[in-house]
Each structure stands twice: as structure tokens, then as C-alpha cells.
Write a structure and sequence with these properties.
five-stranded mixed β-sheet; alpha+beta; 11% strand; 15 helices; 553 residues; 8 strands
């Protein structure tokens, strides 16, 4: 989950089918958000219920519309929805979804921390301000509600999203590092193969140059001999010598582009004896002189009758193997076996565990020498096997044809067969279809939202239960001069039954007044019922009159 998780692209840049799926996803999210807020929002306790109806509808609609916009502006949408969650606590469900997604997308640690802390504190500030401004309750109640919403709806999902984002970025970095290591290894192997081919070209230069020099020398002798015995053939002999000289110069010019063609000395010198029994014995003797006990076992005829490229391949395998023993297993016993049959030449160099571990400065090696050996053996149509042994040693084993063909493909680079290509083109039978691949993630997200919603509901329920109950103040004693609202608040509301009973039996009303007749609910006494009349002039109590009227039978 590029080094950073990919951000959403504009819809117009996606293929038509993908744009259609995204549009359907946007409409689905908005519909779910509208339904959720419309069902839960009006019944959510808090100062949100004191706001005007049109304001509440506008806020819920804005929150539903902003939900799909989080793909383009995750941090901004998170901060805006945090304000909405502070006013409507049940909106914390939407904030939790956006917090997880937004924090997961933020790459810079400092910015991620700043966005998360800011979004967590916004519901607290909004809850305190709204609760105090509307007179719904004290600031302490608003603070506790804001802490619950900010912690459950923003902080916890944001921390989970941060961990998820770091995991995705780590996986991307590991994939890039593995790809870089694989590319570096490929380049090293390629360089090793090129180096080995260059070495082979240098060896061919020495071999062919030596042969051409002999031809040129004999052509010169032939030219001098024909000068006296057959002057008419002297010109042909001169042409042969000139052609041989030109061929040698051209060979040097062509092979010179591969780099300097150095000359080996000692047992590394390239001669007609290279790769023979005597040559291998000389290599073993050099290692013994350096403190490496080497036992040589030879089976079959000598290799002097084989082609030079076969003998030099055997020489290179033995020399490279003994060199590695000197570097990484100094003092270890070496078993060197050469087996020559009519069809194959097998070379095996096996060393035991070194008496003491190699020095730390030696390192583990790059493997370029073995890669070069594999290239040389592969060019002959042979096979090279290398690897550690069970006793702590190492084995290098090569098999090459005794009479290789004129050209052979490297063993390490097999050509792809039609069957393998068909297998690559066939889809993996264990792979799930596109939609099913997302089911585990969708199920995990759904369960996470359920957990957030449950925790949020439980927290808000505890806050409501801990809220101190506010009982209405006791009714004030009614007296002249009180307003109509104060009188009605003191349980003095007009009663049609009492008004009907007072009709025709009440004392005269003061002029310019409007009266109400509250029903006391007292039982009649001696067939009569007591009624209290309150008369208002300009909504101010001007008279209180109590009188008795006959009770209805």
C-alpha cells in the first residue's frame, strides 16, 4: 500500500467502467449517510436538537455530501466533519471512517500527528461552545461529550489508520528494496558473464594468434625456399604470409575493444598444457605450498587430446575453486577429483570446514567468480553445481561434454517452451474474482465501524446517565402584576369546564380585561364548587377573584 499509499485520481482520468463503479460507490455512500443521519440524528440528545429544523437538515446534508469527497481532500474533510461530530455526537461514525482513511494517507509524521490532534480536539471545543451558548447544560457536560466523541470517533480510528498506513508504506519500501537488490544481483551476474566472455576472448586471442604466428613464420620460410626452386610460386607464398599478418592484426583490433588482454604467468599462463593432468597437479601443488592440503584423484585418460576450450574450462573451475578455499576456508582439507570418460569430463572440488572461521575483513564474497564459471561451463553445454555441504564445507562440481558442439546456449538461461508460456498466460485457479478479493477488507471495515458505533453509543449513554437531572422550579405564588406566562407556568391554565360552571354565577369582570378559569380539581362542598378567576389587562394579571358556583348534578 509507489512509496506512499496512492491517492484517489480524478474520476475523468479513470477508464469508463472504473468511473461508473466509482460513481455508484459515491451515490451509495451518500445514500447510506443520508439514511443514517436522518434516522438517528433527530433523536440524538444534545444541543443539536435545539437548533432550527432547516439548520439541522443543512448540516446533515453537508456531512453526507462531504463523505465521498474525502478521497480528494482527506485531511480537510476530516476537520470539517470533526466540527459536525461535536454538534451531533452520532456523526462520530462518519468521522471515524474519514479519520481512518485520512490519517492513513498522510505520509509526513509531523503533519499526521498535527492533523490527528487537531481533529480530536475540535469536537471538544464545539461541544463546550454549543452546550454553553444554547444553555442546554454546563460546560462540563459538553466537555465530557466532546471527549467521548473525539476519542472514539477520531483518535482511535486515526491511530489504527496511522498504523495501517505505516504498514503499507513499509511493504512498499520492502518491495522496492527487494526489487533493487534483485536488479543489482542481475547486473552483477551480467557483468560476471561479460567478464568471463572477455576472458574467453582473450584466451582465444592467444590461441589463434599463436597459430597465425606459426602460419606466418612457415609462410615466410616457404617464400624464401620458393625464391630459388620455384620463383613462379613465390608470389603466392608472399600473399599467404601477408594474409596471415592481416588476419592477426584484425584479430587484435576486434578483440581489443573488450579491454586490455593481459598475460597470465605461472600456472595461470595459457599454454597447450592448460587443463591437463600436469596442469591440475601444478595448481594443487601451489595450494599445498600456501598451507592448503589438497588431495588429487584422477580417473580416465589425460585431457591433452581434447579441445582447448574444454581444457581451459577445467582449469578455470579448479583454479577458481581453490582460490575461494584460500579466501574463505584457509587451512581446510580439499578433495579434488577429475573424471574423464568418453562423453563427459567431471570436475569436483570439495573442501571441509575451516579450522577457524575466516576473518571478518574477508567478507562473504560477491559470487561473481562462480557466476563466471557457470557462464563458461554453460557455453560448452555443461552444468555447474555449487553449494554448502553438510559438514560445513563447500562443493563446486562441473560436468562438460568431452566434445562440445560448435555453439551452446548458457545453462543458466533456458529458453521458454510453449508449455511454460501457456502456463504463464493461464490465470491462477486459486485467485478470486475482483469483487471477492475486497470482501475481507470490507468485512474488517464493517466490523470496525460496528465496534466504533457500539463504543460511541455506550459512552454517550453513560454520559447521559451521569448528567444531573434538572427538576423544574416549584410554582411561584400567584399575585397581581405577574405576566400571563408566569401565571400559566404556575399551573394556572384555562379550563373549559370551570369556565362553563362560572358562566352566569361569577362576579362582574373588570373593564378591559381577559380572564382565565383554572380547574383546581377539588371536590364540591355542599353542592357548590370553588373557582378562582384570573383577569389580565395587556397580559398582566390585574385581578384574582375567588367565588362559589353551584356544582353540576
Amino acid at each position: 500500500m509507489p512509496s506512499t499509499p496512492p491517492t484517489a485520481r480524478p474520476y475523468a482520468a479513470a477508464p469508463p467502467r472504473r468511473r461508473k463503479r466509482r460513481l455508484l460507490a459515491v451515490l451509495f455512500e451518500m445514500a447510506v449517510a443520508f439514511g443514517y443521519l436522518g434516522l438517528i440524528g433527530p433523536h440524538s440528545p444534545g444541543f443539536f436538537e435545539l437548533l432550527p429544523a432547516d439548520t439541522k437538515v443543512a448540516l446533515c446534508a453537508a456531512a453526507a455530501v462531504l463523505l465521498p469527497v474525502r478521497r480528494r481532500f482527506p485531511a480537510t474533510v476530516l476537520l470539517v466533519l470533526a466540527v459536525f461530530a461535536g454538534a451531533l455526537p452520532v456523526g462520530g461514525m462518519l468521522t471515524a471512517l474519514v479519520a481512518y482513511d485520512a490519517i492513513r494517507r498522510v505520509d509526513e509524521p509531523r503533519r499526521r500527528t498535527a492533523v490527528l490532534l487537531t481533529a480530536t480536539s475540535i469536537p471538544v471545543v464545539v461541544a463546550i461552545t454549543g452546550t454553553v451558548a444554547t444553555g442546554y447544560d454546563s460546560w462540563v457536560f459538553g466537555f465530557v461529550r466532546g471527549v467521548v466523541v473525539g476519542g472514539v470517533g477520531v483518535l482511535i480510528p486515526g491511530l489504527v489508520g496511522s498504523l495501517r498506513g505505516q504498514q503499507e508504506r513499509l511493504m512498499v519500501a520492502l518491495r522496492e528494496r527487494a526489487a533493487a537488490a534483485e536488479e543489482a544481483r542481475r547486473l552483477i551476474d551480467s557483468a560476471s558473464r561479460v567478464e568471463e566472455r572477455t576472458r574467453i576472448a582473450a584466451e582465444m586471442h592467444d590461441l589463434v594468434g599463436h597459430r597465425l604466428s606459426l602460419i606466418s613464420l612457415h609462410s615466410g620460410g616457404l617464400e624464401m625456399a620458393l625464391a630459388d626452386k620455384a620463383p613462379e610460386l613465390k608470389e603466392e607464398a608472399a600473399q599467404v604470409r601477408a594474409a596471415t599478418r592481416d588476419a592477426l592484426n584484425e584479430l587484435r583490433a576486434v578483440l581489443g575493444v573488450l579491454g586490455p588482454l593481459g598475460r597470465d604467468t605461472g600456472t595461470e599462463a595459457l599454454t597447450d598444457a592448460t587443463g591437463t593432468h600436469a596442469d591440475i597437479a601444478a595448481l594443487a601443488e601451489e595450494s599445498r605450498a600456501a598451507g592448503i592440503p589438497v588431495a588429487v584423484r584422477w580417473q580416465g585418460a589425460d585431457l591433452d587430446a581434447l579441445e582447448p576450450r574444454v581444457r581451459r574450462a577445467v582449469h578455470r573451475v579448479v583454479r577458481e575453486s581453490l582460490t575461494n578455499v584460500h579466501r574463505y576456508a584457509a587451512g581446510a582439507f580439499v578433495d579434488l577429483a577429475v573424471e574423464h570418460t568418453a562423453e563427459r569430463v567431471r570436475v569436483a572440488v570439495r573442501n571441509g570446514a575451516p579450522p577457524k572461521p575466516p576473518e571478518t575483513t574477508t567478507g562473504l564474497g560477491t559470487g561473481r567468480g562462480l557466476t563466471g564459471l557457470r557462464e563458461r561451463v554453460g557455453l560448452l553445454g555443461g552444468e555447474l553445481r555449487t553449494g554448502p555441504t553438510g559438514a560445513g564445507g563447500f562443493l563446486v562440481e562441473a560436468e562438460v561434454p568431452a566434445h562440445p558442439a560448435s555453439s551452446a546456449a548458457p545453462a543458466g538461461q533456458p529458453t521458454a517452451s510453449p508449455a511454460s508460456l501457456a502456463a504463464e498466460e493461464r490465470p491462477d485457479p486459486g485467485a478470486l474474482p475482483g469483487f471477492l478479493r475486497h470482501l475481507p477488507g470490507l468485512a474488517t471495515g464493517f466490523l470496525g465501524l460496528v465496534g466504533v458505533g457500539t463504543t460511541l453509543a455506550i459512552g454517550l449513554a453513560f454520559v447521559e446517565q451521569a448528567r444531573p437531572s434538572q427538576e423544574p422550579p416549584p410554582p411561584r405564588e400567584i399575585h397581581v402584576g405577574m405576566s400571563r406566562e408566569e401565571v400559566e407556568f404556575s399551573s394556572a391554565s384555562d379550563s373549559g369546564l370551570a369556565r362553563a360552571a362560572a358562566t352566569g354565577h361569577e362576579p362582574p369582570r373588570p373593564s378591559g380585561t381577559e380572564c382565565i378559569y383554572p380547574y383546581t380539581g377539588d371536590d364540591p362542598v355542599a353542592g357548590r364548587m370553588e373557582i378562582t378567576r384570573y383577569c389580565f389587562r395587556n397580559d398582566v394579571l390585574a385581578e384574582i377573584k375567588t367565588f362559589w358556583v353551584p356544582a353540576a348534578p
